[in-house]
Amino acid sequence: MKALTFTLVAEPPERLDLSPLTPERLAGIERRDVERIQIGMSKHGSKVGDIFRVAGSDPTSIVFEGGSTRLDLVAQGMRGGSVRLDGNAGAQAGRAMRGGKLMIEGNAGPYAGSGMRGGRLEITGNAGDHLGAPLVGELAGMNGGVLIVRGKAGAFAADRMRRGLIAVLKGSGDHAGSRMIAGTLVVAGGTGEMPGYLMRRGSILLDRTPARMSPSFVECGAPESVFAAIIDRHLIAEGILKRPLLGSAPRKYGGDNAVLGMGEVLFPR
Amino acid sequence: MPNMSVNGMTIDDTFAEAFGMRATAIVITAPSRKWARQAAITMSGFATSVIGCGCEAAIDLDLPPSATPDGRPGCRVMIFAMGTDELQKQLLNRVGQCVLTSPGSACFAGLQGSAELKLGSALRYFGDGWQISKKIGDRHFWRIPVMDGEFLCEATTGLTKEAVGGGNFFVMAQNSANALAAAEAAVAAIGMVPGAIVPFPGGIARSGSKIGGKYKGMIASANEAYAPTLRGVVASELGPDINAVLEIVIDGETNDAVAAAMKAGIKAVIELGPKRGAVRISAGNYGGKLGKFIYSLKDMLP
Q1: Is B239 helix (H, G, I), strand (E, B) or coil?
Q2: Could A224 and B143 be called an inter-chain contact, meaning their C-beta atoms sit closer than 8 Å?
């Protein structure tokens, strides 16, 4: 069967909620009925058929051809299969994903991978603020899975992260890893102000000495680290990085001592 | 069928009898081969026989840096016991006292089995609250602060119920030097077989035993039928040309691993020949009534 393909016909007239278009929610639905699903979020009330030309029939493999910053909630809550967006995404791409693979070949807006619990989300371009972060009122951010941003990420990446792996390869904005509870955030290409701001536990792994760290982080030596070897090899094996990030004995800063202080920021010597 | 003759050596028409056991394996790595082996040898010390040690353990294979999870030299150590509870206890005591303590060490699962045994998920309490849990891919590790950095230890390792303990054969020679040469050749060959260990000192047992004894409370005692000094006074298994017998005891991850190890060991003894090594090969059994696994020597010939 050919992948179920949604080709964007023109720039949408309103913001769209694409959360109904996941492998799970489209399973067993006729193409005619797919075209009638309402995705518009304003008084226009656009339907799938108004926005996209639909082709193919395999809902476990979904492709969006053409992107727009108005495409919100791409693959929200997906549990399996694959979704590929050939273009930019709006807010909350891959929100609350539990499994499967989401590939965004373009830029993503704010809250990409928000509250992810599993699966793999890869963004080839840049991501907005609050990467993997909780929405207002939620207690924890990303809770599992792998989130890769090949470009830059905005501010508050991995905010309140609890589990899983986030990798940002061309630098992040301010407060990367703010309020982290646990989990691993990798940032290559530099960070903005105060990485790890108010982090409790968890690991922030950098490819260079952070420029502006909060004074509530303290120097914790640089012994030989098997963990560094394991994570370096994992990142290369997963195709996330091409070269080792930390080396065999990275420097460690412990913090944030303004809160629990059991987190760490590691970077090569 | 009468005894066979191969390369001028007598091969008894008998069989080894072995038992089902529980087994696990771990991979120990260290900054150098020397320290990986040191940790592995220390944790598999005093682990020759379940009769008195609680478990049987030894290095299965040396692993090159390319074959270990962290890219450092390593060893795969196997541990065998009669039950899951005892195996779990021995694993934690030995890794906790001998690997955690060894400079620069790290410890990984060495087996994927039908069930899991606790490893780092129990040893983490040494961290006294400073231990760090890390899930990397589908593996779970604990990082425990120690005085040279961190001890990284995988949370669990696998348990197999398919393991076999007690595969064996005897090398019989005209003098002790020849017996030792034959046994050493066998141990070296078995060292290359994955999934099989020889837990006795250097892989060799000189006090092969029989079950029970005349004294109360003895689980095992001298096997007088194979003791050359008693050749004339008991119903001996030894002919006039035998003055030394050594036993190779093999534990394997599977029935096939034990068979492969026996074949490799017997082949090495036969290749060494009767002039420099053994003149006869035999094996130990209990009449075939007790053990689930039978290895006929005639099937083990090269």
Answers
A1: coil
A2: no
What is the tens place of the pLDDT at every residue in A159-185? Answer: 999 999 999 999 999 999 999 999 999
Would you identify the CATH topology of the domain A73-269? Answer: Pectate Lyase C-like (2.160.20)
Element (H, E) at B263: helix B255-276
Percent of chain A whose predicted confidence (pLDDT) is above 70? 100
Inter-chain touch A227–B135, beta carbons under 8 Å: no
Q: Determine the Cα–Cα distance for residues A94 and A37; give it in Å rounded to an integer.
A: 19
Give yes or no for B69 touching A (CB within 8 A).
yes
Distance from CA of A155 to the nearest CA of B (A): 25
Q: How many residues does chain B have?
A: 302
How do strand B280-282 and strand B156-173 relate by DSSP bridges? antiparallel
CATH 3.30.70.520 residue ranges of chain B are: 4-18+162-299, 22-160
Nearest CA in chain A to B148: A223
pLDDT at B139: 96
Is A226 in the B-facing interface, judged by CB distances under 8 Å? yes
Portions of chain A given CATH number 2.160.20.60: 73-269
Class of domain B22-160: alpha beta
Residue B132 to residue A226, Cβ atoms within 8 A: no
Cβ pair B134:A238 closer than 8 A: no
Contact B198, B153 (CB under 8 A): no
Residue whose tokens read 């771990």: B26
Report the residue of chain A nearest B103, measured CA to CA. Answer: A224
User: Is B26 strand, coil or helix?
Assistant: strand
Q: What share of chain A is helix, strand, coil (3-state, %, to 5)?
A: 10, 30, 65
Compute the distance between CA of residue B230 and CA of residue B210 in angstroms, rounded to an integer.
Answer: 15
Selected for mutation to probe chain B from A148, A180, A226, A265 (highest B CB count within 10 Å) is A226
Using CA atoms in the order B222, B223, B227, B229, what is the torsion angle rounded to 10 degrees? 50
Q: Is residue B222's pLDDT more than 70? A: yes
In the predicted model, is pLDDT for residue A219 greater than 80? yes
Phi first, then psi: give them for residue B134, nearest 5 degrees.
-135, 125
Dist CA B238 CA A126 (whole Å): 81
Cβ pair B70:A233 closer than 8 A: yes
Mutate: best of B132, B146, B148, partner A, most A CBs <10 A? B132
B290 falls in which pLDDT band (50, 70, 90)? confident
Q: Does B158 touch chain A (CB under 8 A)?
A: no
The tens digit of pLDDT for each residue in B259-278 reads 999 999 999 999 999 999 99
